């Protein structure tokens, strides 16, 4: 019954928004909590602190969502002080989720994600996967907007990412077998994660940041595992009309094909680090 009420509300408010034909821009801040484990006896404390600070900034980002009733575009705001340059910058960007353009068309149920990975541009095109949202009836204020709470459960394959700088200490290598030593990425078993979203029916569009959508109002805040997205500014009907157009650059792949490409690349990188030398020490990131 709850889901029926939800879909009735969704259709009602989306229809109203189509009639109004408005546009808007929502600005989001993203933060991801990460466990750092930086080892290595030979690494100076000052260097460890520098690495921790760079990685913390890499997981704190700002985004823009340009939205209309039918479609939206989600982009990262790139700042000059973001970590970059060299292999370390690439690694931080890959682990925290790179930039790109994420286009959703909720009317057609499709999305296009233009993203650059390992120096190559991909265009991921696939169908949107609806989340089974459950309304809770709870409310709170986000800025001047009254927001309503909804939750959904998703099953995911999480990845434990371990970036090792050189070989581990000798005593550590003796304790671990060859399948564990110098591992760059280690897969974890699938888990269930509860997503919590806060949406406002003051802006009746079924849009939201990133791949979140399908509620009878703009999603203002999302908590998904260790990542939080919070809207801190909204501009409705800006003076200059927004062009919301699907991206077209890059090699076209499905989401499943892209996931396999990433899995193969991670395996390749892991093998390279296993055979590489250098200073001992590691950065282990558990998301």
Describe this structure in words.
The protein has a single domain, classed as Lipoprotein localisation LolA/LolB/LppX (outer membrane lipoprotein receptor (LolB), chain A). It is 25% helix and 39% strand. It has helices at 2-20, 45-58, 86-96, 170-175, 255-275; strands at 24-32, 35-38, 60-67, 71-76, 101-105, 110-117, 120-127, 134-142, 145-156, 159-164, 185-187, 191-200, 218-224, 227-236, 251-253, 282-286. The longest helix is centred in the last third of the chain and has 21 residues, at 255-275. It is globular.
The level-1 CATH class: Mainly Beta
What topology, given as strand order, has the largest sheet?
8-9-12-13-14-1-3-4-5-6-7-15
Looking at CATH, the homologous superfamily is: Lipoprotein localisation LolA/LolB/LppX
Instruction: Supply Rg.
Output: 21 Å
Low confidence ranges? 83-97, 158-174, 178-183, 278-287
Provide the domain count: 1
* CATH architecture descriptor: Clam
Q: What gap, in angstroms, lies between the N and C termini?
A: 35 Å
Structural class: alpha+beta
Main beta sheet? 12 strands, mixed
Mean model confidence by pLDDT = 77
Number of helices: 5
Order of helices and strands: HEEHEEHEEEEEEHEEEEEHE
Shape: globular
Please provide the count of β strands: 16
CATH topology (level 3) name: outer membrane lipoprotein receptor (LolB), chain A
Strand percent estimate: 35-45%
Q: Tell me roughly what share of residues is in helical segments.
A: 10-25%
